[in-house]
């Protein structure tokens, strides 16, 4: 196993891993912890990936990243929640996003946060412009099932994003 090869792979694809972390963790510290856990699991699985030259890299990365993220989320929901920070402390800790689409992006992330763990995986892969055949490989389901579930997830997001009047 070449650690230099793994580090190069990680540097080239860390944005993909960080996007998975962003969808499954709202808190920056939790995202960093999840990122480290995903990297650890990738490192453990890397020898098996190297032994399969036909395996698609992005599929392998997504599959491990999503599995770790979903497992991590399930573990966090079983643990008692830590005490909440005050509003002032949160304001200092969270720098607001800026830009012309910041409000739309924030609304989209709030809507995505309300989805199930599996639905979040569909959204992530969709936003990454992954084809349905690759989504099927990553998620371990058929392409037809991907199409049906993707349609349902899009409908859920539309209903969450439509303001109530």
Q: What is the straight-line distance between the termini?
A: 58 Å
What is the count of helical runs? 8
Instruction: Please state the CA-atom Rg, rounded to the nearest Å.
Output: 17 Å
Write down the overall mean pLDDT.
Answer: 83
Report the sheet with the most strands, covering strand number, pairing sense and barrel closure: none
Number of strands: 0
- Give the fraction of residues assigned to helices: over 70%
Order of helices and strands: HHHHHHHH
Shape: globular
* Stretches with pLDDT under 50, minimum 5 residues: none
Question: Pairing-aware structural class of the strands and helices?
Answer: mainly alpha
Strand content: under 5%
Topology:
Blueprint: H1 3-24, H2 28-50, H3 57-78, H4 87-93, H5 102-113, H6 117-127, H7 132-139, H8 143-161
């Amino acid at each position: 196993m070449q650690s230099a090869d793994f580090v190069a792979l990680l540097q080239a694809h860390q944005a993909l891993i960080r996007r998975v972390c962003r969808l499954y963790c709202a808190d920056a510290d939790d995202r960093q912890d999840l990122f480290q856990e995903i990297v650890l699991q990738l490192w453990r699985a890397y020898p098996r990936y190297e032994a399969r030259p036909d395996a698609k890299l992005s599929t392998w990365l997504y599959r491990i990243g999503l599995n770790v993220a979903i497992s991590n989320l399930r573990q966090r929901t079983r643990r008692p929640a830590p005490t909440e920070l005050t509003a002032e402390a949160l304001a200092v800790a969270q720098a607001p996003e800026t830009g012309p689409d910041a409000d739309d992006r924030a609304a989209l992330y709030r809507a995505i946060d309300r989805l199930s763990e599996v639905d979040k995986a569909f959204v992530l892969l969709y936003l990454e412009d992954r084809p349905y055949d690759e989504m099927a490989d990553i998620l371990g389901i058929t392409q037809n099932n991907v199409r049906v579930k993707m349609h349902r997830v899009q409908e859920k997001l539309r209903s969450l994003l439509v303001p109530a009047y």
